């Protein structure tokens, strides 16, 4: 899918923008702290002076950068996702205490579903680093172009100066972003519908972490849409609607990629997935339940998990209206 080529185009355009601080391709978390420290700088805003430590990572092969088994590194990246206006402190043996003022991490990386499946644990997906990512997945090329530099499309060289200048212009925009009254009303309605859906639908535990952060994803994308088209630093209802449409478009692929994540305790994981969905309160037969889970587990594994849960007294069957429904037993 030419993943690396795609993000390399964006990185090359940003090279000419003042304030762009690219990070290394392969790095330990200690070196990442050093890289943040080197980018720290102050700039003026309407409220005075602001200090920030921004770093942008363009990772052409995530496997060369991330070690999912390195808890300290994954915790660091997870903490950085929040982008809080605060002093982030880390202590190392070599350098003692290091303070990063207002760290801000931009991360775009390339990998394959197979790498995620082999390296991410269910815990990392459910509530950790992976649930903070927006996954864009492509299974096939939209167009077959053997010689893109000759026959068609792509980024025309003559467009590069204009695109870079546009990025320079965006980089000069400073200050807080505000929502219009219409955007606030739309966002409140959207948020209520999201929460209502989470309460009624059977949401897999692996998907729940992503949905818990979906509101943040929505507004970050809306901010990008705003500054890419206007200078007013205002988020409109239309920006939120477009951002919502973009998320909805990629969500099926996010779930498809994350659904293949396994761990060493597959049987226990399957049982917890089933219990989580039964506790949502929906009436489900075993066929209905399996229809929600077939992308996560085989029918054989599903049947085994149900059998294990019944043997453990966690699940029982209840006849209702001529059908047999599965129920999660209430915990004492």
Q: What is the structure about, briefly put?
A:
The chain has 332 residues and is an alpha/beta fold. The chain has helices at 3-14, 29-39, 71-81, 113-119, 122-126, 148-151, 160-171, 181-200, 205-212, 214-229, 237-258, 266-278, 286-293, 299-311; strands at 41-45, 48-59, 87-92, 96-101, 103-109, 178-179, 234-235, 315-320, 323-328. The protein is built from 14 helices and nine strands.
**Order of helix and strand elements from N to C terminus:** HHEEHEEEHHHHEHHHEHHHHEE
Uncertain residue ranges: none
| Count of separate DSSP helical elements | 14
- Range of helix content: 40-55%
Lateral strand order in the biggest sheet: 1-2-5
Work out the count of structural domains. Answer: 3
Total number of β-strand segments? 9
Shape: globular
Mean pLDDT across the residues is: 81
Rg (CA only): 23 Å
Q: How much β-strand is present in the residues? A: 15-25%
Largest sheet: 3 strands, mixed
**Amino- and carboxy-terminal Cα gap:** 52 Å
Classification by helices and strands: alpha/beta
Characterization of this structure:
With 332 residues, this protein is α/β, with parallel strands linked by helices. It has three domains: 3-171, no CATH class; 178-258, no CATH class; 266-328, Orthogonal Bundle (Arc Repressor Mutant, subunit A), CATH 1.10.10. Helices cover 49% and strands 16% of the residues. The chain contains 14 helices and nine strands. It has helices at residues 3-14, 29-39, 71-81, 113-119, 122-126, 148-151, 160-171, 181-200, 205-212, 214-229, 237-258, 266-278, 286-293, 299-311; strands spanning 41-45, 48-59, 87-92, 96-101, 103-109, 178-179, 234-235, 315-320, 323-328. The strands form four sheets. Strands 1-2-5 form a three-stranded mixed sheet. Strand 1 and strand 2 form a beta hairpin. The mean pLDDT is 81.
């Amino acid at each position: 899918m030419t993943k690396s080529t795609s993000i390399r185009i964006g990185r090359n355009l940003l090279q000419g923008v003042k304030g762009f601080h690219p990070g290394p391709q392969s790095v330990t978390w200690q070196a990442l702290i050093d890289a943040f420290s080197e980018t720290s700088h102050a700039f003026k805003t309407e409220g005075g002076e602001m200090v920030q430590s921004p770093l942008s990572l363009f990772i052409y092969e995530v496997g060369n950068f991330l070690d999912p088994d390195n808890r300290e590194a994954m915790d660091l990246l997870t903490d950085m996702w929040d982008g809080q206006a605060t002093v982030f402190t880390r202590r190392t043996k070599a350098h003692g205490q290091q303070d990063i003022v207002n760290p801000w991490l931009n991360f775009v990386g390339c990998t394959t579903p197979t790498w995620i499946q082999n390296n991410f644990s269910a815990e990392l997906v459910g509530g950790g680093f992976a649930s903070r990512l927006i996954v864009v997945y492509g299974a096939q090329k939209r167009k077959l172009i053997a010689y893109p530099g000759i026959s068609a499309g792509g980024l025309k060289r003559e467009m590069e100066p204009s695109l870079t200048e546009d990025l320079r212009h965006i980089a000069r925009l400073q200050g807080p972003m505000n929502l219009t009254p219409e955007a606030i009303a739309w966002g409140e309605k959207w948020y209520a519908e999201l929460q209502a859906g989470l309460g009624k639908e059977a949401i897999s535990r692996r998907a729940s972490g992503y949905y818990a952060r979906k509101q943040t994803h929505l507004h970050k994308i809306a901010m990008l849409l705003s500054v890419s088209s206007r200078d007013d630093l205002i988020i409109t209802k239309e920006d939120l609607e477009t951002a919502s449409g973009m998320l909805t478009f990629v969500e099926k692929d996010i779930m498809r990629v994350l659904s293949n994540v396994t761990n060493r305790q597959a049987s226990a994981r399957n049982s917890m997935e089933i219990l989580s969905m039964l506790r949502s309160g929906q009436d489900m037969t075993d066929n209905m339940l399996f229809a929600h889970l077939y992308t996560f587990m085989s029918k054989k594994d599903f049947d085994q998990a149900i059998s294990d849960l019944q043997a453990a007294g966690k699940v029982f069957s209840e006849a209702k209206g001529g059908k047999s429904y599965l129920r999660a037993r209430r915990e004492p």
